[in-house]
Amino acid sequence: MSEPAPRIDPTSPADGETTPAPLTRGRRIDLFRAIPGLGWLAKRRSFQFWVVLPNLFLFLLFLTAGIAGTPVGNRNIIIVFVWILWWFLLISLLVPFVSRIWCTVCPFPFFGEWAQRRALIKVRAVAPKDRKSGPGVVIGRNRYFGLNLKWPKRLSNIWIQNIGFLFLCTFAALFLTRPIVSVVVLGSLFVIATTLHLIYRQRAFCSYVCPVSGFLSLYSMSSTVEVRAKDAGVCDKCKDKGCLAGSEKGWGCPWYVYPSKLDRNNYCGLCMECVKTCPSDNITVNARPFCSDRLLKGWDEAWKAFIMLSLALAYSVTFLGPWGFIKDWANVAEKQDWAGFATYTAILWATALVIVPGIYAAAVGLGRFIVRKVPGAALPFKDVFLGFVYPLVPLGLLTWIAFSLPLILVNGSYIAMVISDPFGFGWDLFGTANMHWTPVVPEWTPYIQVVLLLGGLFFALRVGFAHATRLYRETRVALRAFLPVGCLLGVFVGSLIFLYAA
Amino acid sequence: MLEQEVDYLFCDWCRKHVPCHRVPSGGWEVDCPGCAGECVRCDCYLRRYCFANRGDFPPLRKVEGDPK
Ligand code: SF4
Ligand code: SF4
Ligand code: SF4
Ligand SMILES: [Zn+2]
Ligand SMILES: [Zn+2]
User: Does any ligand 1 atom lie closer than 6 A to the CB of residue A48?
Assistant: First the structure.
């Protein structure tokens, strides 16, 4: 079926000495060995179904509450649970510690994936002789339904997610106050996810479109778990390639990655299919040190880092800063100040897409300029830039945690309230509807925030310097090249600390 | 160093020759260190092989001087 590949492509340039020295690879602990039963659980065919199902019902409850319940934001479960509790858990616990575990339990692709597979739990495996017959489309050894088109190559990046996320975040103040807006957003996510599943192969929606996916992929690089092959030697000899092609035990990787070769967390949705399909039991879940994946691979990923950092900065200024008029601008639903909102939007988008990346690029350029005379230090701009943007992964993540902390501390009481009265109808299911919440240690909040921000700066400087050493090899050159970016990071953290603690 | 009796393709992304193996179930598999299994975003010429035996393969891009 395939044509022979050329023995060698003679027009290509000679191999350069460009293979980068590997960044430090820390220790790994095989969690399937360390935690009895975990591997067994992940191998159950019904595993993902049973963890998605409760979330599906929860989301349907949220949507119902958004439509039928009170329009008062902080009395409606959809606002309090989705934008406060879920967001906080996601950014401060799930992503840093368990990578994209949210994608394991996420209900959005449920209906689409069901339509593609026409199965909730079982697998449709195809014997080679039946490849040409039968309904649906055969990919690898699995049979799928729907159009199963290939996602366009031009869009095989996270730009749609970048823009989508920025767009949604522009209306943050609306989400936080109007339940019906949340219904529209979450409902559309269900509809778009399902439609794209019917048109494109497997998890195209998740890989390229889902607005949540972008920051999950970026920040999961820092996460302390990973799905990886145990022994590369076993994969080299493997004739089955079940992890990629699927088998009667499971589906080929729904996320379009080749689990055997996987080296970063970014695009692995922790669905555990490869754990089931590998005939040699060669895939496992490892625990690993914080910030173990360190290579950004494209401008889209770098811009994701800028967008996330800019949003954290903008929200801190808007919601925690002392400037009421900015808050009024952002909150167009309450104030109806359309000119103000337009100004706010323009500033936000310019900051995230042009100003912050521009300042950063200037700092990277300055670093390259400082070491320009050093022999062998004339590296391509993109290589240095991507290396030096990476510190924004730990820094951005910890900045977001620092920002989200007061959100949960201040609004904690609403969580107890809406559990007893999810629709805001005056119910009191668990006797917590009128609980009065005194924020836990509010006077400590700024100190915790400062510690988080300084921790972010520490990790950022450490991984940034590791990149500088990888690129420039010599410590002194690396230090000088990284100096401007390092200072910039320091200034950023300094101003945030001033904003939070002042 | 390129070895005898091994097929190679040149990867634009990694700027080097990468070995490719015949996968028993059909198709080829390449060891592209640049995308490292991330067929999902890989832009390289080798991307079409990353799906090994996942189904249809477009014909190879004709490179001048290709052996027949
Ligand atoms: S990428 Fe988005 S839609 Fe897909 S599983 Fe993750 S959060 Fe859900
Ligand atoms: S992970 Fe398993 S199925 Fe995949 S290549 Fe390695 S041994 Fe084969
Ligand atoms: S590599 Fe693919 S199949 Fe394996 S857990 Fe990740 S998304 Fe699932
Ligand atoms: Zn490559
Ligand atoms: Zn590739």
Answer: no
